[in-house]
Design a protein that fits this description.
Elements (H helix, E strand, L loop, with lengths): L6 E7 L2 E7 L12 E5 L8 H12 L7 E5 L10 E3 L17 E3 L1 H4 L6 E2 L8 H11 L4 E5 L26 H14 L4 E5 L9 H4 L4 E4 L1 H8 L2
Parallel strand pairs: 3-4, 3-8, 4-5, 5-6, 6-7, 8-9, 9-10
Antiparallel strand pairs: 1-2
Length: 226
């Protein structure tokens, strides 16, 4: 993040190629938070113990606080520092006063330039992108809540059958591969996937990485000082 000065976006307007240099958002130089929370939208996120952790974090100040990243429709009901939005349909209901907290890929950014451009990458799912942003912003430990995966039959999502989620198909294998690539590149960052009874297994290539761990909620409380 400290070295990122922005990037060029290329687009077509009135039949002509154009380029635009996009500067990054302001990033506080006194930022001391080194632990991040990333919220997927799996059913496990609604469990009472995870909600207690999140609510307690929202009440913390200064060094005890963990920067929070959330995905897509989480802006409806979940306090977070930043949101990753991967579908422009959500902007029909997103309040304009939180655009400065939202990260989007380059094609969406061209239509909503008060939002933040996701740095250097655009193709990943929202959960993996949020994990990437946490590492990119300098987190040393990233706790993944609501990353449930699938048995390839069930696609549980807490916003199912609402705007942006009707008839959507998930490629959980691709999502886990994206997460694998992030953890592999950011090998100095420790990633913790927090599991409960709603969590399915992830592929071995991800779980075998030395900087990736699957832990219980109790272990998360101890590891993350929640």
């Amino acid at each position: 993040r400290r070295d990122y000065e922005g990037e060029v976006v290329t687009y077509v307007e009135e039949g002509q190629y154009k380029t635009l240099f996009v500067k990054p958002r302001d990033f506080p130089f006194d930022r001391t938070v080194t632990t991040a929370i990333v919220l997927g939208n799996g059913k496990s996120r609604l469990s009472s113990d995870i909600q207690l952790i999140l609510n307690q974090n929202n009440k913390r100040v200064a060094e005890g606080y963990k920067t929070t990243y959330a995905c897509n429709a989480a802006y409806r009901d979940t306090p977070a520092d930043y949101y990753v939005v991967k579908n422009a349909i959500f902007f029909s209901e997103i309040p304009t006063n939180i655009y400065n907290k939202i990260f989007v890929q380059n094609d969406i950014w061209l239509a909503y330039r008060d939002c933040n451009l996701t740095p250097s990458i655009w193709y990943m799912d929202s959960g993996s992108t949020a994990a990437y942003l946490a590492a990119f912003d300098g987190a040393e430990r990233v706790f993944l809540f609501g990353f449930d995966g699938s048995d390839d039959i069930t696609n549980d999502n807490i916003y199912a059958k609402t705007l942006g989620y009707d008839n959507i198909q998930y490629d959980h294998q691709k999502h886990s591969y994206n997460l694998y690539e992030i953890a592999k590149v950011y090998n100095n960052v420790q990633f913790y996937r927090v599991r409960n009874e709603y969590s399915f297994d992830y592929p071995n290539d991800l779980t075998m990485l030395p900087n990736y761990s699957e832990i219980s909620i109790r272990q998360a409380v101890l590891e993350g000082d929640f």
